[in-house]
């Protein structure tokens, strides 16, 4: 049984979150709090396993409280955020400070969306309860799940039947991630040299957050980082992060690699999907590509990594100890698609070695 404390200054939101979470047999709401001061006392008294934390509250905002909490009593926290440009910046800051994940503010006037919302927050609370939490260090975001059928990459890009003839030896790196990924991506890119081959990234993240995330990553690395645009040429020393509402594919234009954005259905309930990006790399770059799977919930990207391995691409997965959630990399390892399982801090070094070969 996962014990949850709900912290929100809105009585309606507290009531709704309590109703949704308490309905799951594996979750128990042990209390609610209207602000961080009340939350502090209830944490001491009730010892919850997971906190849901509103960002905007009187007396003390959620991010300030989170910083104090992660220094003094680290625990899994799911932020409750508005999916706006301003909300994106604050939420990404919370993830940097140690929040495991986030969900959007529930829309109290849109009853038909509540089943999808309930599925999302229940899954994220259960994932947070199993996540590894450290003192004022990493944690992350994921795009909202839907209750739709789980589609494979076939829904966006058909599997290729024959072998391609590659007219270029240019390398390209593909990175996939979900829960915990925003901080893991920064850790990998931070110390990479500026002359590395182009990098494409599919991170499960909402549309309102991807541009802000790319901007934050651009400020901590020697590489040039941007949100990918359709038809954009993939250049050495540049990183292209998928928009939060499009699949990112890699296409060939002669000897050049280009970004191709696709508005197809969610794959593995995600858009962008790592499976879609990895399949496009397998088909268009083959052994010239390198696949990296970082921390994340679920199994998106596992089959795509298998296709990249079959095409001759080196494959790397983050190890369980350094992952916030060892779902996506763990599934790829379990299926036998990974050549190297490495701690997060060694993945950048391995990429640099592979690109020099």
UniProtKB/TrEMBL annotation:
Keywords for the protein's UniProt record, in alphabetical order: Chemotaxis, Cytoplasm, Hydrolase, Phosphoprotein
UniProt entry tagged with the keyword Phosphoprotein: yes
GO molecular function, one term: phosphorelay response regulator activity
Active site: 178, 204, 300
Pfam families documented for this protein: CheB_methylest, Response_reg
Presence of the UniProt keyword Transcription in the record: no
Location of the protein in the cell: Cytoplasm
Similarity comment: Belongs to the CheB family.
Alphabetical list of PANTHER family matching this protein: PROTEIN-GLUTAMATE METHYLESTERASE/PROTEIN-GLUTAMINE GLUTAMINASE (PTHR42872), PROTEIN-GLUTAMATE METHYLESTERASE_PROTEIN-GLUTAMINE GLUTAMINASE (PTHR42872:SF6)
Protein known as: Protein-glutamate methylesterase/protein-glutamine glutaminase
Annotated organism of origin: endosymbiont of Tevnia jerichonana
């Amino acid at each position: 049984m996962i014990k949850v404390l709900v912290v929100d200054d809105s009585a309606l939101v507290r009531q709704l979150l309590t109703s949704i979470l308490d309905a799951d047999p594996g979750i128990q709401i042990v209390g609610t709090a209207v602000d961080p001061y009340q939350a502090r006392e209830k944490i001491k008294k009730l010892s919850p396993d997971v906190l849901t934390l509103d960002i905007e509250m009187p007396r003390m905002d959620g991010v300030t409280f989170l910083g104090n909490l992660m220094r003094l009593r680290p625990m899994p926290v799911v932020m409750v955020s508005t999916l706006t440009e301003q909300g994106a910046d604050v939420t990404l800051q919370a993830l940097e400070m140690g929040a495991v994940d986030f969900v959007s503010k529930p829309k109290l006037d849109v009853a038909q969306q509540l089943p999808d919302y309930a599925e999302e927050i229940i899954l994220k609370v259960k994932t947070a309860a199993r996540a590894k939490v450290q003192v004022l260090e990493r944690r992350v975001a994921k795009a909202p799940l839907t209750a739709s059928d789980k589609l494979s990459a076939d829904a966006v890009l058909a599997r290729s039947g024959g072998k391609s003839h590659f007219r270029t030896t240019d390398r390209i790196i593909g990175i996939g991630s979900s829960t915990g990924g925003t901080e893991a991506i920064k850790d990998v890119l931070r110390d990479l040299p500026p002359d590395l081959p182009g990098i494409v990234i599919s991170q499960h993240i909402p549309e309102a957050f991807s541009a802000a995330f790319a901007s934050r990553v651009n400020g901590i690395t020697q590489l040039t980082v941007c949100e990918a645009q359709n038809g954009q040429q993939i250049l050495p020393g540049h990183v292209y992060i998928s928009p939060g509402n499009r699949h990112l594919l890699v296409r060939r234009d002669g000897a050049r690699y280009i970004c191709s954005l696709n508005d197809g259905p969610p794959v593995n309930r995600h858009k962008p999907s790592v499976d879609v990006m990895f399949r496009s790399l397998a088909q268009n770059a083959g052994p010239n590509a390198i696949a990296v799977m970082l921390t994340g919930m679920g199994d998106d990207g596992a089959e795509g990594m298998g296709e990249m391995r079959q095409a001759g691409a080196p494959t790397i997965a983050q190890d369980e100890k350094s992952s916030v959630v060892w779902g996506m990399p763990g599934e790829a390892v379990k299926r036998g698609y990974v050549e190297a399982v490495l701690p997060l801090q060694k993945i950048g070094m391995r990429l640099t070695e592979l690109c020099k070969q």
